[in-house]
Specification:
Blueprint lengths: L2 H27 L5 H30 L5 H25 L42 H78 L1 H19 L1
GO molecular function: SNAP receptor activity; SNARE binding
GO biological process, one term: vesicle fusion
Keywords: Coiled coil, Membrane, Phosphoprotein, Transmembrane, Transmembrane helix, Transport, Ubl conjugation
C-alpha cells in the first residue's frame, strides 16, 4: 500500500471509530449492550495507532532518501501530527474521559463527503505543485532526482569557482611578495645613492676650500674630475 493509500485508509478508520463511539454511547443511553462494539473499537483504535506509525516511518524513509522536498515533508508531518492528535482524542472519548460531537467528514477522511455533499480533496495532496500534478510516484521520484542532481552540479560548480578564487588569491599574494622584494631592493639602492651623493657633496665642499689657496683653475679641474668619477661610479 502506498503512502497516499495508507493515509486515506487511516483517515477513514478514524471516521469509522468516531461513528462507532457515537453508536456505543447511544446504546449505553438506551440500555443496550455495547460489549461487542467496544471490542471492535479497541481493535480499531489499535489499528489506527499502527497505521499512524507506518505513516511516520514511511515519511521518515522518504525524507532521508531525499525523495521529498523539505517543505512537502514538513507539510505531511503536520498531517500526521493532526492524526496523532485525533487518535488521542478518540482514545479519550472511548474511555469516557471527554465527550465530543461528530466531526465533519471533510476534516477526517480523504475523498469522503464534505458538509456540502461534494468530494473533499485528500489533504495529503494539497498544495501540490503544477510540476508534479498528474505524475506517478515513480515519475515524481525521477523528477526530484533530477532536481537533486542539478543542485549537486550547482554545488560542484560553486566549489570549482571557490577553488579558482583561492588559487588566484594565492597567486596575488605571491606577486605582492615579489613586488615587496623589488621595492626593498629599490629602497636599498636609493639609500646607497643618497650616501654617495652626501659623500660627493662633502668632497666638493673640500675642493671649494682648497680652491681658495690653489687658484681657480686648479679648483675647476678637481671639481670636473670628481664629477666625472661620481657619474662613472653611479652607472
Amino acid at each position: 500500500m502506498s503512502q497516499l493509500q495508507n493515509y486515506d485508509a487511516t483517515c477513514r478508520l478514524a471516521q469509522e471509530i468516531a461513528e462507532n463511539i457515537q453508536e456505543r454511547n447511544r446504546q449505553q443511553r438506551t440500555g443496550g449492550n455495547p460489549a461487542k462494539i467496544n471490542m471492535t473499537l479497541r481493535a480499531s483504535l489499535q489499528k489506527l495507532k499502527q497505521n499512524i506509525a507506518q505513516l511516520r516511518e514511511g515519511l521518515l524513509r522518504a525524507s532521508s532518501s531525499r525523495r521529498l522536498m523539505q517543505s512537502e515533508a514538513d507539510r505531511r508531518q503536520n498531517l500526521i501530527d493532526d492524526l496523532l492528535t485525533r487518535e488521542k482524542q478518540l482514545n479519550a472519548t472511548f474511555k469516557g474521559e471527554i465527550t465530543e460531537a461528530e466531526p465533519a467528514r471533510s476534516t477526517l477522511m480523504a475523498g469522503g463527503a464534505g458538509a456540502s455533499g461534494g468530494v473533499a480533496a485528500n489533504p495529503w495532496l494539497i498544495n501540490e505543485s503544477e510540476d508534479t500534478k498528474g505524475l506517478s510516484f515513480g515519475e515524481i521520484k525521477q523528477q526530484q532526482q533530477r532536481v537533486i542532481e542539478a543542485q549537486d552540479a550547482g554545488l560542484e560548480a560553486l566549489a570549482a569557482v571557490i577553488s579558482r578564487q583561492k588559487i588566484m588569491g594565492q597567486e596575488i599574494g605571491n606577486e605582492l611578495d615579489e613586488q615587496n622584494e623589488i621595492i626593498d631592493d629599490i629602497t636599498h639602492l636609493v639609500d646607497k645613492t643618497d650616501d654617495r651623493i652626501r659623500n660627493e657633496t662633502r668632497r666638493v665642499k673640500l675642493v671649494e676650500t682648497k680652491s681658495a689657496s690653489c687658484g681657480e683653475s686648479y679648483a675647476v679641474l678637481l671639481i670636473a674630475t670628481d664629477l666625472i668619477r661620481f657619474v662613472w661610479h653611479s652607472f
